[in-house]
Amino acid sequence: MVHMTDEELFKRLTAVTSYILNQPELLAEWTRDWWPFSAKLEVEEDSLPAFAVMPDSAAEISAILKVAAEAEREVILKGGGTSLVGAIESRPNAILIDLRGLNVIDAVNEIDHTVRVDAGVHGGELEERLNEQGYSLCHFPRSLNLSTVGGWIATRAVGAFATKYGGIEDLVQGLDIVLPDGQITSTAAIPRQTAGPRWLDLIPGSEGVYGIVTAVTLRVRPTPEERRFRAFSVPSFEGALESLRGIVQQGILPAAVALSDPGETESLAFDLNAPDAENLLILAFDGVLPVVDLEERLTAETLVSSGATDLGSGPGLIWFDHLFRCDWLIDGNEPEGAMADEIDVTTPWSNLAAVIEAGRGALTKHADEVWTHSNAVYPTGAMIGFTFFIRKESDDAAMVAYQLAWRDCLDAVITAGGGSSHHNGIGQVRLPWFTDQQGAGMQILRAVKTTLDPERRLNRGRLKL
Description:
Shape: globular
CATH architecture of the largest domain: 2-Layer Sandwich
Structural class: alpha+beta
């Protein structure tokens, strides 16, 4: 191996790709994501990558990886930059590959109900194109219009309609990927097979440590014949979740669930036209008309019999219209000494009360305000989210409190029998808990990394691999 100077590396890169930048101010911008902690940090110039590139094909990515190996440079990856947990970690002298140059959307395969889409395509653009052809992905993360398909795969993303449709991993039928040595490979886009383990299943959630996803074949559905929203005011947050447990365990699956505690309800009530709601519950139902009729009726009957007040469809329609706004996070972190964030966790139903109490109790030691919500329920458990707001005299003090809040909350949740994540990935903020949560499985994950990337050149440090 011969170590290359930046000048030599620039010449080698210009031979294989056309979009290259090395201006420090632009590199600093490209190495940030939406992690609130990173927004408060000054990026030192000597910590920046040497170059950022935006290839437009798998072949270009392959060539870039081979140049990186010759130059003994690390490679870091960027998609839409919407991670809330620090998925982008700047590495000095590295090459940053921005995948947004991969932007092709194929026509829907109307027989298989699949679509092949490049990893750099933004979610909102994909959904719009599918709708034009009479289809939907039914995957609606709040970052839909800002995040990319490849980012969804890398972080094992979940959308607002996860109760019915699951996470992105449930929609993946096949992948095209460039391995760390530059080899281009793909998996067959077939529904399932019994020929041993599928290596494809290692990729969703792997945060780019095993290779670079360049295209994905995804399952799509015909645009729902009917989509309805229904809102309720429920007297108890935990009581509403208990009612929802009974509903989903009978096989009745609302497409979307959004339950807010009194604090969050108060913040939403005016905008959603639900001024008298105690704990606001919003549900969506979609599919063919007879099924929607039945699921909506049975769900409403169960909730009303448990003390809920029916608020009609209005608040839900407004909620869906506002779903993809992310301004609360920007507003909550902009002032000096202020930080706002959400910690998403999961829990089996049997540990629900303990996890909620533990998570809230830990956060209230460090945050000025804590809200609790649930945005997905499953037959075996639920997602619980804690939104918290810190207000201190300085950014430095707020950052200390923020780190303690995350540490104590996840420690408490795990001790109470919950899981440390649901939909926002691992990144940097959850990394301290990742190894313990994987247990002996870390041996397998590290062995795969060593086989594919022995020099740890690609996204080094992610997932402690």
